[in-house]
Amino acid sequence: MSMKKTRTTLAALGLALSALAAHALDVVDERGVTVSLPQPPQRIVTLLPSLTESVCALGACNRLVGIDRYSNSPEQVKALPQVGGGLDPNVEAIVALKPDAVLLAKSSRVTQRLEALGMKVLVLEPKNHADVRRVLDKLDQVLGTHDAPRVWRVIDASVSAAAQSLPASARGLRVYFEVNNAPYAAGESSFIGETLARLGVKNIVPAALGPFPKLNPEYVVRANPDLIMVSVRSAQGLEQRPGWAGIRAVREGRICRFSAEQSDVLVRPGPRMDEAARLMAQCIAEQGAKGPR
């Protein structure tokens, strides 16, 4: 090989290495662990519905190769292989998909096993509005999509629009949002509670009790909410719970029962929080229109 050709080959190799280095990135996840990625991942497994939805909202749905069993939005992800639940998924099934990144929650029990097998693992778990924005920004960095600011602006503007759509008569309603019939409630410090606050209603579960506390049913009776929001999954027999017949919301029929599909939207802190706000606002407006409390 001539000296000229050698120089040309070395120059081309140098350019290729420079391009590769330019795409390499170090990402600090929610454990404080720095994960080094040689390039934006092209084969991604998500183990949390909100992360699945966030990847898709950023325009990278086509990079998903596997999801947890609860991820069901947008429609196209339903055709993807499911690797089990997010907490304790099938590790062998994940490895078989040959992902170059696995996105999961802090509560997942397989993080260390996946890392021991050489997987690149990113722990990302949004729990409130600020977290949703931060996770979108982090995913933007990982994916190289540069679309998080636009996605967040749409969410934020839509929540504000939902709040502005409410009549004055609906504001100040005292609301109980039941997550499931244990009963677990959405408190003021949860992302659901934050949305309710922006809609101008009062949550009966204070921040001091935590984001999703398990309540003594008697607590709800004493709090006597004006409005109850609940999924049809856990609403059965609600009126028959001891003492609940006397709750103002039950007595006056101020109960919004959300379908399973609507409940999925409401309980996921992700890019569909704008849709969740609209669902809540519609419920509040309808119940607020029933007259004075």
Question: On the 0-100 scale, what is the average pLDDT?
Answer: 91
CATH superfamily of the largest domain: Nitrogenase molybdenum iron protein domain
Calculate Rg over CA atoms: 23 Å
CATH fold assignment of the largest domain: Rossmann fold
Query: What is the second-level CATH architecture of the largest domain?
Result: 3-Layer(aba) Sandwich
Count of helical stretches: 12
Number of strands: 11
Please summarize the sheet with the most strands: 5 strands, mixed
N-to-C span = 90 Å
Q: What overall form do the CA principal axes indicate?
A: elongated
Structural class: alpha/beta
CATH class of the largest domain: Alpha Beta
Query: How much helicity do the residues have?
Result: 40-55%
- The succession of helices and strands, N to C, reads HEEEHEHEHEHHEEHEHEHHEHH
What does this protein structure show overall?
- This protein has 293 residues and is of the alpha/beta class.
- The protein has 2 domains: 24-146, 3-Layer(aba) Sandwich (Rossmann fold), CATH 3.40.50; 167-288, Rossmann fold (3-Layer(aba) Sandwich).
- The chain has 12 helices and 11 strands.
- The strands form 3 sheets. Strands 7, 8, 9, 10 and 11 form a 5-stranded mixed β-sheet that branches. A 4-stranded parallel β-sheet has the order 4-3-5-6. Strands 1-2 form a two-stranded antiparallel ribbon.
- Helix 5 (129-143) packs antiparallel against helix 6 and helix 6 (148-164) runs parallel beside helix 12.
- The chain is elongated, with a radius of gyration of 23 Å.
- The model is unreliable at 10-21 (pLDDT under 50).
